[in-house]
Amino acid sequence: MRSALWGLVGTFAAEIIILGAGTWLGTSPMFQLLALAIGVIVTLLFLWLPPLRDLELRWPVRRAEHRSTCLDTDAERVSRYQRNQGLFLVHKAATPSRYPGQKADVTIRLAQHGDGPLSKGTVASVEYVLGKQFEDHARVRTNPRDGFALEESLYAPLLVLARVGFTDGTPDLLLERYINFPGDGGEHA
Is 39 in a helix, a strand, or coil? Predict the structure, then answer.
């Protein structure tokens, strides 16, 4: 189908060129035969040349549609900043761990994007929930100077939830962070 389409395009292009030249040179029967021969040759070239035969005609991608998708995801991004009040969990991992049987020593802390509760001093505490495999799976931190940091030694990656409490009556905020580290078999921290 594509080859036939290109053959028609080639023939049409050759005919236009020859007809344009024909108006300048005249339309003798010999010239019309020459025009037909050139049209056939161009058609055969378009049918048999692999690079031209396999070339697809495509409509350009609509930039407005792409822009619309970007705007939707950007709006969601901004919404998350607002919903979290600019607060996020971050982590840093050091490998190997200093402790036998563990793979990494990890520090998890609260970080502030722009102005917000952490920079204004209205965060009261962060309760980290590590999971049932830990003896003390929920740990509360109250030191704002280190970003309410939690230091932990891990043998495998895990999902951490953190409940952020405020001093100004703002409802608690629940954040999450997947804690990974070099050598865990996945993406590196």
Answer: helix
- What Cα–Cα distance (Å) separates residue 60 from each residue in 1, 63, 65, 67, 83? 21, 9, 12, 14, 38
User: Which pair of structure tokens corresponds to residue 55?
Assistant: 């070339």
Beta strand pairing status for 138-141 and 123-129?
Answer: antiparallel
H helices of 84-184, in order, are 117-120
What is the token pair recorded at 5? Answer: 């389409």
- Tell me which amino acid residue 75 is: A
pTM of the full structure? 0.61
Cβ pair 182, 188 in contact under 8 A? yes
Per-residue pLDDT of the chain (189 residues; tens, 9 = 90+): 555 555 556 566 656 665 665 555 566 777 666 666 776 676 666 666 655 555 555 555 555 555 666 668 888 999 999 999 999 999 999 989 999 999 999 999 999 999 999 999 999 999 999 988 888 899 999 999 999 999 999 999 999 999 999 999 999 999 999 999 987 766 554
Three-state SS at 69: helix
Which residues make Cβ contacts (< 8 Å) with residue 86, sequence separation at least 6? 112, 113, 114, 115, 116, 117, 118
Reference 148, options 122, 170, 180, 181; nearest CA is 122
3-state SS class at 6: helix
In whole angstroms, what separates CA 49 from the centre of its chain?
A: 38
